Amino acid sequence: MARYFAIRLARAMITIALVVTFAFVVLRLSGDPALIIMGPEAPPEVIAAFRKAWGLDDPIWMQYFDYFGAIAKGELGRSMRDGRPAIALVLERIPATLALTIPALLLKLAIGIPGGIFAALHRGSLIDRAVMIGAVAGFTVPSFVLGLVLVLIFAVQLGWLPSGGQETWRHAILPIFTLGIGGAAVLARFTRSAMLEVLGQPYIRTASAKGVSWRAVVLSHALPNAAIPTVTIVGFMVGTLIAGAVVVESVFSWPGVGRLLVVAVANRDLAVVQCILLLVAATMVTSNLIVDFLYSFLDPRLRSRETAGAH
Amino acid sequence: MEPLVSLDGLTVAFNGVKVLDGISLSVGRGEAVGLVGESGSGKSVTWLAALGLLPTTASVSGNVKLEGTEILGASPATMDRVRGGRVAMIFQDPASALNPVLTIRRQVGESLALHRGLSGAAIHAEARRLLDLVGIPDAERRLSAYPHEFSGGQNQRIMIAMALAGSPDLLIADEPTTALDATIQAQILELIRSVRRETGMAIVLISHDLGVVAENCDRVAVMYAGRVVEEAPSGELFDDPRHPYAHGLIGSLPPIDGPRRRLTAIAGTVPDPKAMPQGCAFAPRCGQAAAPCGTQPPRLRAIGENRRVACVIDQHAGASDIIGQAAE
To answer: Which of B40, B129, B210, B268 is the most interior residue, by most CB within 10 Å?
Structure first.
């Protein structure tokens, strides 16, 4: 068991290193921060001084090693724009983002999982079709379209809710629903197919054949099995808690991590972008680790494979 | 004496396609009945339908009586007491018939709680006794194991323990040994025999293996394309099959003694349920088919004590002697 997680952990570290490297390369290929931050009219000596100050005149491999060295020491650099530590800029935005993404996640779970189970249990019925049409609509409509449509209906037409900003809890309602509906749709479809797969298994027939009521068959025989694939997708959703709201935060001018990322990319504020990506990769990887752990908790077959592997 | 379970005119259709057409069959108390036929002949569907285990898309009609009480279409609560408590069922592939994420204690214990009203320590003790009974070594420790930690044969033993947990009057064993090695097959069949001796329960053994059925059953029903075509005490069926299909099946078995002979095969294939012949379903493959065979499916008729056959041709009188009532 310990070895299993040691391997997983090592793999997680490599994943993070790859993400950071990728971001490092792409950002440096896609524009010169000195020109963007100082402006194209800035005198050449100012640009040169800026480059020198931020180490941008070093060879790229040297910048890369410096950067990794700094990360190893826990230094994530400073914003080129206002000189503050990048991590501080990012951290102060996290609560605003979580204020959207956590309620949205709960909304996804609360609608998606029961919806999927319900549709699977009434397969082929009108209810099933209605749920599935809703689900297809929910995840094919891009979040910026859905966000704008919701604004049009609830802010412009009905005037019930504000269209953007962060002043009160009422400002959070539309972005939360915009985020939640798409995810709920994905989760409903996924849960439905996981459930249908399980309901077709011979052990479900065995349970019915021994006189277990249908309700108990669903609750204690089907759900524990259907939970195994569903956990994967929920884990993925947990992984996007930090940076899953980039588009929605922009649509609703919500001052979270997503908006910070958009601004930082536009400005080529390297340290800030890298810091956010590092954080995103770390969340993703952590949630994957948790999913792996949950798998072995939910599926005894995996548990014994691990013990076998540890010897 | 009233039979334990009797099926009468049991008919099943999926999306309008009949897969089972008027099955009539009865099982007496303590009796061992074999049900033979090739895959798709409706052997398993017959009992899944009788116990209400088919998906709701199947339309089921006819009568299924348990000690004279109609159970086809009975309330879910009634059926939950019948299933497992009166009639238990074990299946072909024991590894996938057990729930992979629940312990053996949970799965056997569930039947004990449902049908014997046991709880807590009593469940544990009884589950242990059942595992001992079906020959799982180290039962105490193995109760907390999961199905994947057992071999196929052991899983089938666990299925049998689970079936016994409800003390049923009838065990439907649906191809219980098909997925197992030959030696394990013999052990499982021996276990089923010894369980029968001890409990006196009746059994329906569904199999495509004529040898298994001959050895274990008092009476055999042969199914073809969703109908019973012949029913006879097993000895008589094997010595003197009357239906051309049963004749063909038995002719395809190698004799254990006597002169070597060429094994016969039945020409052709089973008809598609969507395109059943108008008359006898076997007629297109039957060497003795005559004109009346094509008009309407023959009914099962008695041809002596405990023997019934669904064929218009009297085998003993020869192919030319066609029984007049065929066209009724």
So the answer is: B210
B80 touches chain A (CB under 8 A): yes
CATH 3.40.50.300 residue ranges for chain B: 5-217
Please state, in angstroms and rounded to a whole number, the distance separating the CA atoms of residues B97 and A56. Answer: 65
Cβ distance A300 to B85 less than 8 Å, yes or no, reads: no
Domains, chain A, in order of start with CATH, read: 86-308 (1.10.3720.10)
- Which residues from chain A sit within 8 angstroms of residue B53, using beta carbons? 205, 208-209
Q: In chain B, what residues touch A300 (CB-CB under 8 Å)? A: 100-101, 146, 148
Query: What angle, rounded to 10 degrees, do the helices at A170-199 and A143-150 form?
Result: 130
How many other C-beta atoms are found inside a 10 Å radius of the C-beta of residue B257?
A: 4
Closest CA relative to residue A77, chosen from A246, A217, A278, A234: A278
Q: Average pLDDT per run of 10 along chain B, which is 328 residues long?
A: 89 90 91 89 91 90 91 90 93 91 93 91 92 90 92 92 92 89 88 90 91 89 90 87 83 73 76 81 80 79 84 60 42
Fold of B5-217: Rossmann fold (3.40.50)
A299/B148 Cβ within 8 A:
no
Q: Which among B277, B273, B253, B272 has a CA at the least distance from the CA of B263? A: B253
Q: With an 8 Å Cβ cutoff, are B88 and A225 in contact?
A: no
The C-alpha atoms of residue A41 and residue A256 are separated, in whole angstroms, by 31
Across the interface, of A203, A209, A298, the residue whose CB is closest to B53 is A209
Are the beta carbons of B91 and A299 separated by less than 8 Å?
Answer: no
